């Protein structure tokens, strides 16, 4: 969540206002010390324009190198470096 | 309001606060029964000072006092959860202490107007500080974030 917030140039306070929580709660969400309710999760998803399961996936995010490797191995995937 | 007080410091202050409170109760009752002799009266004053001095950092500066006394419509879902949990634990602790006080009072027959008032204010203080103490005790080192901008 912290990455998504920073990508969009939002401060914690601004994000807190958008999703209707106190600013401390944004910190807890970003540190994964609090699991949001379904309602709050949807509001966060709506704010970032992303599906909820992408933001709050129980699986840790895979390294980008692994993602690229898998993409290249797929049929039709590019083998040219830089042609992704 | 966002002072960095570590978990261990918070716990230490909570213990000192409640030990001083318990001693204040003992000295005040002793003072009343002894016709306010110098030793219990002065001791009571000292420990009450300790209660006040430790109250300020652990409940005031951390924002915990304000947090647990904030109306629920100003809290978000995480804060409500934290508050409910702290109230649940506080209720259990408070019930036991209140029942013990009542039982001791009944068994010893020491309760008169003054000691009754002393016990009342002791329980009153406990009832108001226990939820904040539970949060101070259980929260991690990010508890200073409970300072509410309400």
Describe the structure.
By secondary structure, chain A is mostly helical. Chain A has 6 helices and no strands. Chain A has helices at 2-7, 12-19, 23-30, 38-48, 52-55, 64-73. In chain A, helix 2 (12-19) packs across helix 3 (23-30). The longest helix of chain A has 11 residues, at 38-48. Chain A is elongated. The two termini of chain A are 25 Å apart. The mean pLDDT of chain A is 85. Chain B has 150 residues and is mainly α. Helix content of chain B is 76%, strand content 0%. Chain B is built from 5 helices and no strands. Chain B has helices at 7-33, 38-61, 64-68, 77-108, 113-138. In chain B, helix 1 packs antiparallel against helix 2 (38-61). The longest helix of chain B has 32 residues, at 77-108. The mean pLDDT of chain B is 89. The A-B interface holds A 20-25, 27-28, 31, 33-34, 36-37, 40 and B 75-79, 140, 142, 145-149.
Short synopsis of the structure:
Chain A has 84 residues and is an all-alpha fold. Chain A is built from six helices and no strands.
Show the helix and strand layout.
The complex is a heterodimer of chains A (84) and B (150).
Chain A: H1 2-7, H2 12-19, H3 23-30, H4 38-48, H5 52-55, H6 64-73
Helix pairs in contact in A: 2-3
Chain B: H1 7-33, H2 38-61, H3 64-68, H4 77-108, H5 113-138
Helix pairs in contact in B: 1-2, 1-5, 4-5
Number of helical elements of chain A: 6
Task: Return the string of H and E elements of chain A.
Answer: HHHHHH
Largest sheet of chain B: none
Flag low-confidence runs of chain A.
Answer: none
- Please write the string of helix (H) and strand (E) elements of chain B: HHHHH
Alpha-carbon Rg of chain A, integer: 16 Å
Q: Which percent band covers the strand fraction of chain A?
A: under 5%
Instruction: Figure out the total of helices of chain B.
Output: 5
Query: Got a strand count of chain B?
Result: 0
Summarize model confidence as the mean pLDDT of chain B: 89
How much helix is in the residues of chain A?
Answer: 55-70%
Stretches of chain B where pLDDT falls below 50 for ≥5 residues? none
Write down the oligomeric state: heterodimer
Classification by helices and strands of chain A: mainly alpha
Number of strands of chain A: 0
Percentage of helical residues of chain B? over 70%
Radius of gyration of chain B: 17 Å
State the end-to-end CA separation of chain A.
Answer: 25 Å
Instruction: Choose one word for the global shape of chain A.
Output: elongated
Q: State mean pLDDT of chain A (0 to 100 scale).
A: 85
């Amino acid at each position: 969540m912290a990455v998504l917030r920073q990508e969009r140039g939002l401060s914690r306070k601004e994000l807190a206002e958008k999703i209707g929580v106190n600013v401390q709660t944004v910190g807890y969400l970003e540190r994964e010390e609090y699991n949001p309710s379904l309602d709050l999760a949807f509001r966060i998803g709506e704010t970032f324009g992303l599906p909820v399961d992408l933001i709050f996936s129980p699986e840790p995010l895979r390294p980008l190198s692994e993602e690229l490797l898998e993409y290249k191995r797929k049929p039709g995937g590019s083998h040219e470096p830089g042609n992704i | 309001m966002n002072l960095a007080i570590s978990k261990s410091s918070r716990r230490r202050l909570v213990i000192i606060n409640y030990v001083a409170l318990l001693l204040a109760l003992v000295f005040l009752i002793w003072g009343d029964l002894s016709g306010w002799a110098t030793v219990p009266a002065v001791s009571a004053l000292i420990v009450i000072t300790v209660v006040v001095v430790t109250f300020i950092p652990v409940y005031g500066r951390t924002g915990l006092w304000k947090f647990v006394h904030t109306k629920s419509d100003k809290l978000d879902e995480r804060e409500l959860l934290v508050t409910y949990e702290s109230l649940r634990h506080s209720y259990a602790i408070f019930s036991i202490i209140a029942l013990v006080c009542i039982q001791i009072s009944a068994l010893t027959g020491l309760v008169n107007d003054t000691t009754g008032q002393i016990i009342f204010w002791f329980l009153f203080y406990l009832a108001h500080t226990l939820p904040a103490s539970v949060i101070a005790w259980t929260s991690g080192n990010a508890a200073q974030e409970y300072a509410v901008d309400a």
